From TrEMBL:
<dbReference type="GO" id="GO:0031369">
    <property type="term" value="F:translation initiation factor binding"/>
</dbReference>
<feature type="domain" description="W2">
    <location>
        <begin position="556"/>
        <end position="725"/>
    </location>
</feature>
<dbReference type="InterPro" id="IPR044123">
    <property type="entry name" value="W2_eIF2B_epsilon"/>
</dbReference>
<dbReference type="InterPro" id="IPR016024">
    <property type="entry name" value="ARM-type_fold"/>
</dbReference>
<dbReference type="GO" id="GO:0005829">
    <property type="term" value="C:cytosol"/>
</dbReference>
<comment type="similarity">
    <text>Belongs to the eIF-2B gamma/epsilon subunits family.</text>
</comment>
<dbReference type="InterPro" id="IPR056764">
    <property type="entry name" value="LbH_EIF2B3/5"/>
</dbReference>
<keyword id="KW-0963">Cytoplasm</keyword>
<dbReference type="InterPro" id="IPR005835">
    <property type="entry name" value="NTP_transferase_dom"/>
</dbReference>
<dbReference type="InterPro" id="IPR011004">
    <property type="entry name" value="Trimer_LpxA-like_sf"/>
</dbReference>
<dbReference type="GO" id="GO:0003743">
    <property type="term" value="F:translation initiation factor activity"/>
</dbReference>
<protein>
    <recommendedName>
        <fullName>Translation initiation factor eIF2B subunit epsilon</fullName>
    </recommendedName>
</protein>
<dbReference type="InterPro" id="IPR051956">
    <property type="entry name" value="eIF2B_epsilon"/>
</dbReference>
<feature type="region of interest" description="Disordered">
    <location>
        <begin position="526"/>
        <end position="552"/>
    </location>
</feature>
<dbReference type="InterPro" id="IPR029044">
    <property type="entry name" value="Nucleotide-diphossugar_trans"/>
</dbReference>
<dbReference type="InterPro" id="IPR035543">
    <property type="entry name" value="eIF-2B_epsilon_N"/>
</dbReference>
<keyword id="KW-0648">Protein biosynthesis</keyword>
Amino acid sequence: MGVKKGTTRVSEDTVEELARVPLQAILLADSFAQKFRPITLERPKVLLPLANIPMIDYTLAWLESAGVEEVFVFCCAHSGQVIDYLTNSKWFNQPNFSIKTIESHNSVSAGDALRLIYEQHVIHGDFVLISGDTLSNMSLTHVLEEHKERRKKDSNAVMTMVIRKSKPSPLTRQSRLGTDELFMAIDPDTKQLLYYEDKADHLKGTISLDKMLLADKSSVSVHNDKQDCYIDICSPEVLSLFTDNFDYQHLRRHFVKGLLVDDIMGYKIFTHEIYSSYAARIDNFRSYDTISKDIIQRWTYPFVPDVQFTGNSTTKLERLGMYRASGIIQSSSAQIGPFTVIGNGTTIGDNTRISNSVVGDGCKIGSNVSVEGSYIWHNVTIEDGCTLRHAIVCDGVIIKSGAVLEPGAVVSFKVRIGQQFVVPSYSKVSLLQQPTKQDSDEELEYADDSSGIVEFPSINSTSAKLTSDSSEAQLLAISEVGAGGVGYLWSVGEGDFEDELRQSVAPIPADKLAEIIQAANDEMEMSAQDGNTLPPSGELQPDSNSFNSEDNIEDRDDSIFFEKEVEATFLRAVHEDVKEDHVILEVNSLRLSYNKTSVDCAGALFYSMMKLAIETPHSSTSELFENATSVIGTWKRVLKSYLPSIDEEIEVILKFEEMCLESAREFSSLFAKVLHHLYDVEILQEEAILNWAAEKEGADEPDKVFLKQSEIFIKWLNEASEEED
């Protein structure tokens, strides 16, 4: 689709004038709400809790910290709730930070929203375009400077997109956020975006690029390892372009692609890649889970639960990534595991175990309850003997005794789950009946179709009706969730089950992973036979049919995320007595998801084991050594499963060496002793240790500190080896 010629251009003098206006932002509050059904039929997505804090608070806090002075919040679905929340929040009373709401009940796309904002003439210069489900801690200084400098040289440079590196899984072809593999072509010299395809999964590893892309370019970098952060720096022309082109609805699929293929007006989009900063958008339940973990593990700092960026926070950070608010009543026999958030005023009964989860304010959790990898929002009641695995439970839900929520279950507001009832995997339960017609998110990018299109009764009115004068027959009529339960069990469409697996808070099941692996192997064989394989991201030179690797250095961010996930899995296994086979299965799932090798798994597991040893109370180096030998003895089999060759064993030594120098210096005096123990318990072979020592011989003196510490042991190994020969 082309750009109409009537679009207004901005002169260079006007550009200089615009540079002096306060920095503004447009925040779209209704992005992809349908992927969060049935929850978003009753509450706007931006008000859903993320580590017990509404999503929109993270976005606004970042905008304020980044120097934005005026934010226009566009809301459509449940606009009254958004406006009420903002009006009563701290955001309406901030100096030098103004928030104004724009309400519409007829807009069903980003295009509609931006056209309406253009008509109101409120944007006076370059602005930040963002959705209310985006988190970041990046500085805007550099990207704004880049954008303004480009504008001075080329008035056609109308947008700068923020991106960051993120490797998709080679098996599922999706990112860690549960989004489709994204293909981009970028001019490596100017950073101009030349190609964008976010719906390429059907292409089976091949993309087609127009040869004209190389007509005036020395080279083009083609990537499938970039994440679109959905943070855009826009010039005022962007709004007028939407107004002049009514077929622009979707921001990426229509607007971005429309500008990329237009050869008449010559408008350009550029990219700005961030490296050490964080930026991500909550597109689906999997990204909700991933970003929640990133918050808990403090990748989003300073926007974390224990920092008062939204007001008076009573949450405190404790060891092993546990966050606890005030007023918690917890039984002495209850166990709270690592990477867990517990909200204000929550009570936890006897022998209950909670790990890797978020529990909201005012919840009542009974005895002998097991909660793992789940998100329990506010004022939820969970009776005795319940089990929740990788589930989402909304405000006001009551789960009767003995009930089970299987992985991927979503229980919407004020539902009652009956005694002993098992909510099947990937099921959704709501007080509202499942709509018979479901519009696609391609049509409704920034609004749920409950706004201005279909009216649904409110949960409050439905709940009141059920709990007041309803007859037993009426209650039973909607008791699809067991005895004493109230709610409708939504069915998963025949063609939707694959998306539920890919976009759920639950890990992809082992049997499904096996199917994916087999399908990937079959596809690779077919591609090899046909000669169609997609090379890794790299530069395409003119008159070249192949790609050269642009960078063979493993992405540090992905490696750190992987190690954090392995550590969380390991700590959960320690605190919950998870069987070794299950731990191996979970680590294998992470290995596939992050495209890692056995070497990576071995290093991450050993790091987690040694970190546990050092965090276990001790008063001397001898006690620390005892901690280490105890952990190694307990988890030896799990570690050994990732040591199929000498290379992996050497990685364990290198990882331990790195820890002794950096994160766990307390082990430095014990290096040789632990190395000897790893040999004694047959984790490390003689060949691995001697190869490591041989490699170290040629190193600089400062790098030989642990080799020298191990001289006696190495000498003994060499002598033993010579005697055998």
